[in-house]
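Format notes (please read before filing issues)

Several people have asked whether sequences and structure tokens are stored in separate files. They are not. Every record keeps both together, in the order shown below: the sequence lines, then the token lines. Line labels are part of the format and must not be stripped during preprocessing.
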Amino acid sequence: MLARGRPAAQARAAPAPGTERRVDDAFLAVAGQRPRDAVMVSVNDLVCPGGSCPPLLDGRLVRTDGVHYARGFAELLAPLLLQRVAAAVQPSSLPR
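Then the structure lines:
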């Protein structure tokens, strides 16, 4: 059983195709209005390796509802995201 007692077959694992791209585009549009104040950090390559968004990665359910990360996967993803955020906000990485 996965996703709060729902069998894996019932858990919605990935958002609709193209959703990540639309979200990225929306963030980039906002960031483009204030490029000195914004840095985008993506985890798409980790969540959807090779452009495919599998329901399980490293034996963990990725999403419970198609949008929000499952706790176990979030615990795996969090340190990787924090590394990327730390690298992105280094003074040498920021726009001038």
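For reference, the curators noted about this record: Confidence is low (pLDDT under 50) at residues 1-11. The CA atoms of residues 16 and 66 lie 8 Å apart.
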